[in-house]
Write a structure and sequence with these properties.
Residues 1-22, 67-88 are annotated as: Disordered. It comes from Zopfia rhizophila CBS 207.26. This is Tropomyosin. Residues 13-22 have a biased composition (Basic and acidic residues). Pfam families: Tropomyosin. The protein is mainly α. The chain has one domain (2-129). It is built from 2 helices and no strands. The longest helix has 86 residues, at 75-160. The radius of gyration is 35 Å and the shape is rod-shaped.
Length: 161
């Protein structure tokens, strides 16, 4: 009888542990979802910045063309065109860096999605395990009650003898 109580206590502890782990994994999934949302916002921000930079590059390229025409009329216009080319080159480098950052963030987002899926599967497995343990616990509790009733009936019969 003490063994049954000990076993029931152990099953309760295991059920509590499983529930705690499930909560922990749910928390981790929420954290990953929050990180995922932050990454998406960062990607959106960088995409917008990239679009603004590309528009600025286009404007500056138009200015460069205009200044090249003026450069033919004077040496001063030539130096301005050179300055604009440097600005364009810097902006293009910034645009390339933004593109690289976006690609890296997309990869991180993909990895976060993979991890999130992994943790979701773990949570599901833990929930299934918990359900099985609960079922086993209920089954054992029923067996215990039946055995206790049989024992009580037996004790009563012996007492009547």
């Amino acid at each position: 009888m003490d063994a049954i109580k000990a076993r029931m206590a152990a099953l309760r502890v295991e059920a509590d542990d499983s529930a705690a782990k499930a909560e922990e994994y749910k928390s981790k999934v929420k954290t990953l979802e929050t990180e995922n949302m932050q990454k998406e916002q960062e990607i959106t921000s960088l995409s917008h910045k990239n679009q603004v930079l590309e528009a600025e590059v286009e404007k500056l390229e138009a200015l460069v063309k205009q200044h090249k025409g003026e450069a033919e009329t004077g040496a001063q216009a030539g130096s301005q065109a050179e300055s604009m080319q440097r600005k364009i080159q810097l902006l293009e480098e910034e645009a390339e860096e933004s593109d690289r950052t976006i690609r890296e963030l997309n990869e991180k987002l993909r990895q976060t999605d993979v991890k999130s899926g992994h943790y979701e599967r773990k949570v599901q497995a833990l929930e299934q395990s918990r359900d099985q343990w609960e079922s086993k616990y209920e089954e054992m509790a029923k067996k215990y009650a039946d055995t206790k009733k049989e024992l009580d009936d037996f004790v009563k019969e012996i007492g009547d003898i």
